[in-house]
Amino acid sequence: MPFNEKEKILKKVEKPTRYTGQELNMCIKNPQDVDVRFGFCFPDVYEIAMSHLGLKILYHVLNLREDTYCERVFAPWVDMEEEMRSRDIGLFALESGDDVREFDMLGFTLQYELSYSNVINMLSLAKVSLLSKDRSLDEPFVCAGGPCAYNAEPIADAIDFFMLGEGEEIICEIIDVYKEWKKHKNRTRKSYLEEIAKIEGIYVPSFYDVLYNDDGTVNSIVPNNPNAKEKIRKRIMNDFDSAPTPDKVIVPYGDIVHDRVMLEIFRGCIRGCRFCQAGYIYRPVRERKVETLTCLANRLLDTSGYDEISLSSLSSSDYTGLKELTDELIDITERKKIGLSLPSLRIDNFSLELMKKVQKVRKSGITFAPEAGTQRLRDVINKNITEENILKSTAMLFKGGWTNVKLYFMIGLPTETYEDVEGIADLSQQVLDKYFEIPKEERAKNINITVSTSSFIPKPFTAFQWCKQDTREEIVEKQNHLKSSIKSKRIRYSWHDNRTSYLEGVFARGDRRLIDVIIKAVSNGCRFDGWNDHFKFDKWMQSFEECGINPDFYLRERNIDEVLPWDHIDVGVTKKFFINEYEKAKKAQTTPNCREKCAGCGANSFGTGVCYE
Predict the structure, then answer these.
(1) CA 613 to CA 598: how far, in whole Å?
(2) Packing angle between helix 472-485 and helix 418-436, nearest 10 degrees?
(3) Which of 124, 286, 300, 482 is the 20 to 30 A CA-CA neighbour of 610?
(4) Pairing of strands 286-287, 266-267
(5) Domain extents in the chain
């Protein structure tokens, strides 16, 4: 975009720094000196996108290559979009300001289902054909990855290919093939897709035909190209300790959601909570060494100027070297007067000594996730924590001077009863009682307990992928019941919007027929669906109706024998294991974590990680 034109519109938008680029540590290359221009597209606003660790890693990996220039492309906020459309300005990259339609590839990260409307809207802004079958040779290839890529069937027809699993290696492999493909005079889009379809972890949706039964369920998913595999297996970094990671990151001018150094200490999770997709799709657990992390922390602090370090993982307290690591990091934080945050703690394996150490510089609130209010339901979901764990840990915190505690629960879990809902109120009251058990002269003042509930959404590649999702009416009834069951004014209750959960549930287990609904919804004005002030539920319902699709079909209970829209994807955890976990859940039987006893999930097929410790 010409500088003068950009300057004009930036004067009219709410946060111009979302679009200016030029931040500290931004990569600058001459586009004429590279073979491949790659747009890393995050389908949300700048503040969210710049907090994403995956973006930082792949930006670093691609820009290490002399032949490739990776630039950032984010969804413009509604005020900016209005200015761009009124002036016929196409979607542009932050680094160069160039129109992304001229790029070789646009890669979207799919972090949550409610971003699908933004993906379509960004393609529209970029003047790129919305469906892969309509793209000409002069248009960029559109690819995607991230957790939602494991069942991105609702948006599959808009994507040329998916990269399944961890991207550090696979993204370089598709670039190498692209460079060779560009040399051929008679090249076609299909010939490139056929070459990369041979790479493990690459899924080309157009190379598969989906057939349906008369009742609307999937009959079969069949390859229609000799290069397409029957099952597409995810990729992982086998040696995570030596996996590439940036030693300097872009420092934004304005505030972002996670404005700090992020240390990814391990990938995967040993726990096996039956509702948690991330716990399965990122298996097996692979750790970084303490010395690797300590060196990385020092470099990142020196090159960024940040005043806080945060550990990144699904369950930080399961890191085997946590005590040694926190000792090393506390030496750094005390010397530099910066904070250390330890998110994703489990309530059953942390110590007050640890909490006191990490919060010497800055004390913050504590968040725990019991998930369910009764022991029976915690056993159903395989949370593997007891009421005693919860009360003992919170009592310990109150004695240590903490008074700001958040408790996260889910409503609508499989087999849930109103007794389980009341259990959330009962457990929260018991936590409050632990505070008042401390003598008045010894306890800290201003106790603050927040109870927060989200709506359970059955996700692919979990033990509950066959379960029915509660209706909106059932969720509202349970929320109201819980609200009336909480008696103390010292316990605050907040809950998640059931309408966004409803839509997320539809797309989480959806199939290819939903692409028409997404495109229709965007034309009806839907975008930024994860933002309450922009979510247009009535427009979505209108779009389903206009496309002749009943969204409730996707929220129903599934038969174990039913072909699932994601059955051609292999995350390394077997379907047999999920069926077994589903049956155990019905009996409220638990499964021990990976370090206690191997449950035979299938992740050992990768030949690395916790399976071989």
Answers:
(1) 11
(2) 30
(3) 300
(4) antiparallel
(5) 3-233, 239-363
